[in-house]
Amino acid sequence: MKFYIDTAVLEEIQEAHDMGILDGVTTNPSLMAKLGISGKEAVNFHYKAICNIVKGEVSAEVLSTNYAGMIAEGDELSKIASNIVVKIPMTGEGLKAIKYFSAKGIKTNCTLVFSAGQAILAAKAGATMISPFIGRIDDSNWDGVQLIEQIVHIFGNYHFNTEILAASIRNPLHIVKCAEAGADIATCPLSAIKGLLKHPLTDIGLAQFVEDAKKFM
Ligand code: G3P
């Protein structure tokens, strides 16, 4: 399973990159807005800075909701760097845009996927990857990981090449469950990635080794 980080914060991206586990980055307008980045030039400059850190895929989201706007923006975003993936919302207009980019050989990430039916449509339109938002599904009292399992099963039935990118991950257990379910990619906040590091027996064992090492140092 590939690990992406779900943030626009450059320091966090660098930290995950330095850990040697980072395969890519996802961002969205809310994550950009949190940093106070505004204006097309500033946003594009920020994407460039992210692509300078990470050579893996970097999802950059279009802001338009109509087909013409999405393809104009996506074409521009794809020119920022060769590892940019154009992120497009799961709508009828979005599907048309995915088909357009697929025909041009430009990678797409279909975002805001909340059902297996939406996943099938995005795959049929030629999406490179789809983003089911598992944390938000859990928030609404359904089972986000179960959706990943369902999509893995369906895509396996028909040998779709579209990758399943588990998004809206909130904690380390989500990551492990998505790996068990067969997600191709998990995009996670840095806190969830760091949460995977922790085990009390590791801390106790290390403290013991450090203590014992003093006896012969
Ligand atoms: O990758 C999608 C993600 O940014 C949404 O996460 O926590 O806002 O549901 P969240």
Tell me what the structure shows.
It is a single chain. This protein is α/β, with parallel strands linked by helices and about 220 residues long. Helices cover about 55% and strands about 15% of the residues. The protein is built from 11 helices and 8 strands. β4 (about 85-90), α5 and β5 (about 110-115) form a beta-alpha-beta unit. α4 (about 65-80) packs parallel to α5 (about 90-105) and α8 (about 145-160) runs parallel beside α9 (about 170-180). The termini are far apart. The mean pLDDT is about 95. The protein binds SN-glycerol-3-phosphate (G3P).
In order across it, which strands form the biggest sheet? Answer: 1-2-3-4-5-6-7-8
Distance between the termini: 41 Å
Low-confidence stretches: none
What proportion of the residues is helical, as a percent range?
A: 40-55%
Biggest sheet layout: 8 strands, parallel, barrel
